[in-house]
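REQUEST ID: PR-0412
SUBMITTED BY: lab tech R.K.
PRIORITY: routine
TASK: structure prediction, single protein chain
INPUT:
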Amino acid sequence: MAETYILQNLPYEYGALAPVISEEQLKLHHQKHHNSYIVNANALLKKIMDARKNNSEISIKHSTKDLTFNIAGHILHSLFWESLRKPRQANEPNGEILKAINLEFGSFERFKKEFSDAALSTEGSGWAVLMQDKKTKNILICQIEKHHVNLIPEMNILLVLDVWEHAYYLDYKNERAKYIENFWQIVNWDEVSNRLKDKNNSMKGGKK
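STATUS: complete
OUTPUT:
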């Protein structure tokens, strides 16, 4: 049997991100929505392994697509939780990550606007993502549809913002723009900076 995925504890209490993200919203997002991707991924892994063991037929297209969707959802949510910290009104990056942002975008304000626009204009459910090309070391903003569509290989993921409605609907209803605006108060720039330095960027503690 392949190793199974597990739901890691958050690096802070459920109420730590309030009022940007309420305790109720965060608990529901983590325990229900994130956990569902883990449960589904583990069930699919078992189904695939059982089919191999019994030499029985499975729909490869259906199974691999669903497995990719659920594992990607787990990975992105794990990165998202680590990207957040207690709210601060004046919350801006410094050091190497600020240098990289200024070099690529001209200023932090320009980067912030482009990233916010990417999050706001993501079609349907998805993510806004800041990535670093492992070869060129350039950083760029992209959108990921659902969890896995448009995910670019060979990219070091630095910062993610979940704009699925389940990430904000209790606190913001349908006001995605307000959720994105407040997101900047809780970005953990120390973690983002650490990811810039970690060129391999392997997910921490994702399996048991």
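NOTES: The longest strand covers residues 126-133.
REVIEWED BY: pending
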